Amino acid sequence: MRPSTLRALNRAAELTRQNRLTEAMLIAEPVILTADEYEGEEIRQWLLDHVADFTGENHPDSKELP
Predict the structure, then answer these.
(1) What is the Rg, in whole angstroms, of the alpha carbon atoms belonging to the chain?
(2) What is the residue range of 31's domain?
(3) How many domains does the chain have?
(4) What values do phi and psi take at 12, rounded to 5?
(5) What is the pLDDT of residues 9-20, one digit of tens each?
(6) Neighbours of 65 (CB within 10 A)
């Protein structure tokens, strides 16, 4: 995954935890939509692995999400 993509996802997670979902989507959506199939899969896996980054909660089963 490109470093810029990872930065955008981390920032979106931070904004989401602050209840700033609209801003989070404005940052994350373009990165997700422009990803190729390989980076898209990396993004999907990162999101599954980092659910708690967005919720601020501990989700031990986060890898089992659809």
Answers:
(1) 12
(2) 3-55
(3) 1
(4) -60, -40
(5) 999 999 998 999
(6) 10
